[in-house]
Amino acid sequence: MSLTKHLPPASTVATSEQAGRYINRELSWLEFNARVLSEADNEAVPLFERLKFLAIYSSNLDEFFMVRAAGLQAQITSGVLELPPDGMTAEQQLLAISERAHELCQQQSEMWNERIHPTLRSVGLAVLHPKDLDAETLKSLEDHFEKHVYPVLTPIAIDPAHPFPHLRNKTLNVGILFDPKNPSEPRFGLVQLPTSLPRLVPVPHEKYRRAFVPLEDLIFHQVKRLFPHLPAIGHFAFRVTRNFDIELDDDEGEDLLLAIQAELRRRERGHAVRLEISGECPKDAKTWLCTELSLHPERDVYNLAAPLMLENFSALAKFDDRPEFSDPPFSPFYVPPLRDSEDFFKTIREGDILLQHPYESFDAVVDFVTLAAEDPNVLAIKQTLYRTGGESPLVAALQRAAELGKQVTVVVELKARFDEASNIQWARALERSGVNVMYGLLGFKTHAKVLLVVRKEGGRLNRYVHLATGNYNQQTARLYADLSLFTARESLAEDATSLFNLLTGYSAPEKWNQLITAPLGMHEAVLGMIHRERENKKAGKEARIVAKVNSLVDADIIEALYLASCAGVRIDLLVRGICCLRPGVKGLSENIRVHAVIDRFLEHARIFYFENAGAKEIYCSSADWMPRNFRRRVEIMFPILDNKIKTRVFNEILEVMGSDTEKGWVLESSGRYRRESTRKKSGDTRSQEIFVADARVRSQAINPALIHHEVLTKTDAGSPIEKLRRRRKRKK
Predict the structure, then answer these.
(1) The listed CATH number (2.40.160.20, 3.40.50.300, 3.30.420.10, 3.30.870.10) that belongs to domain 344-514
(2) Which run of H or of E encompasses 411?
């Protein structure tokens, strides 16, 4: 395409003036997690869902320290001097991270101690200490310890003969302080809690429906059993977070799969980046732990007044089916036209089909691949896999297709963070079934979501394409809000073929028909479209930009948006997570509004709308506006070409999300967010509720082809889709 104008690249060394134009990436991410934590403290959210948000906050923060904070520490160690656009050095960022993260962790502790746990107790769910139990229950608990816990534990007393052990990443430990009267005896002991044991031990209690004692409290209670000859004078729980990111040199091994397997084993011993402590830990013990772990005693240590790893406490609500404490049950709707189709291929040929997950069922995608695998007219299936999830029916369908003699090619991304081991497993399984498994381009993650089916029809080959903003994962498709498109347009089919040829044979096409790809021009194309809106506005033409992304980080894109704002272009940004752009600054970004939605489902779709002087354009993508997506990943932006679908995406998705006043947040120029609404009002809009209602309405529509009674009652019982539906019904 012709929109390839470059704006001057952002400087790698920021001046103080530049720094005021950007919000620091890491601090912006912490503000995203603060919004997640706020949902845990939102009394309008059902109680068990508040527990869920508390767990998400904790696991999010773990990943942040394992990857982002660890990366900053690595920069300091390696002497990297390059500054981000906001101008903060790695040391400054770590200090700012520590300050904000300490604030959030204090809020989390207060939230648990003062609101969430008391509320749980009031509805009959409690976390207790052994001292809260009567003698009979306590004796039963001690018997449980003796039979089921004690044999698994390994008490370690630290002395010259027993050096400080390697503590596994994110595992809980009990620290024991011994009486220092005898200088020759150990001063410190520890017990690592095995992950094979449940964190919460159930105990009967007449006052509560369900009560539990945390495993660490049980170990505290039985410390004399573990260290019978060392009198304990104190104890606390602690855990270590380590650098857990993949650091892989592409030249490390000829076999990428083997290289990643080796790295997975190595990274378990990554250097420590955070120490969390719950309980009374004397200063000298804390200093000693920091020395052993090479951590800063103030910056890297988090003393919490609540139990560690609160994500484990979601077990409190397990098996409790009281509906008033959970979100209403939801099942995605299987909608027309695919729901009523007896021939998926014919239905897709008749017109593009858009699905909005999770509101509209991902089963349609699974059915499409399953039918293609069984169809004798299908000759080839090609698909990218980034995160597939466990027991994937898509993987099973691809295996089946290969076993039936079809040409099946799968591009598996082994370096999908934290899913590397799972992807290795699926890659091996696919290879055993005869699938041609590839690992993409050396040095680039394959993040694009593309599926191509080649079918012989009437003496010619037709191609069918599925393009998506989210992963081919039937589990996350029920939790992540994404878009996916079925099409038989020849222009998109040619581009999909070219993409797979690029991934498997380094064969880049001379030009693309409709797809915009990274690293081959996506960055330039987006800059060009933003520049075009600016020029249109200056020329008195219609101009507007609406962009929905997970993260907005790229400095060149931000600068282009600032210039468009200064020209008077109205810009609405729906940014779920990181946003380095600073909105509402006079003379810079007063025409830019940044809105975020945190709700039941994770907003994941990337959608871009450009007014284009009235010739409206909408693209969907797997790519955020981040340097890594533009330069270090294989990504696609695909256009919405059907006018009805285009209108739906703008009016029924983008506009609805932008007007969300119940679950929406607005970014202020300070870098902090404020809620759109502080109390529930009758006029409030909750976008995800609207999406559920819209999907329900679409599911109730009847395909015009099935209006006649004889067609409605005499479906072909032997058709592939009917057989597939009967099999699924039997499994359920």
Answers:
(1) 3.30.870.10
(2) strand 407-412
With a cut of 50, which residues of the chain have pLDDT below it?
Answer: 1-15, 248-254, 260, 416, 418, 679, 705-716
The tokens for 461 are 């080959």
Residue range 505-555, pLDDT digits in tens: 888 898 999 999 999 999 999 999 999 999 999 999 999 999 999 999 999
State how far the alpha carbon of 327 is from the alpha carbons of 321, 323, 473, in Å. Answer: 11, 7, 23
CATH 3.30.870.10 intervals, the chain: 344-514, 518-697
CA-based nearest residue to 388, from 377, 396, 379, 380? 396
Tell me the catalytic residues.
447
**Domain 518-697, CATH homologous superfamily name and number:** Endonuclease Chain A (3.30.870.10)
CA 612, 615, 619 angle in degrees (round to 5)? Answer: 75
The structural architecture, per CATH, of the domain 41-325 is: 2-Layer Sandwich (3.30)
Strand partners, 518: 635
Q: Are 96 and 27 in contact (CB under 8 A)?
A: yes
In angstroms, what is the C-alpha Rg of the chain?
A: 28
DSSP H helix total and E strand total for the chain: 24, 27
- Element at 203 (helix H, strand E): strand 200-203
Buried b (16+ CB within 10 A) or exposed e, 312-327: bbbebbeeeeeeebbe
Instruction: Report the C-alpha gap between 20 and 2 in whole angstroms.
Output: 33
Query: d(Cα 389, Cα 425) in Å, to the nearest integer?
Result: 11
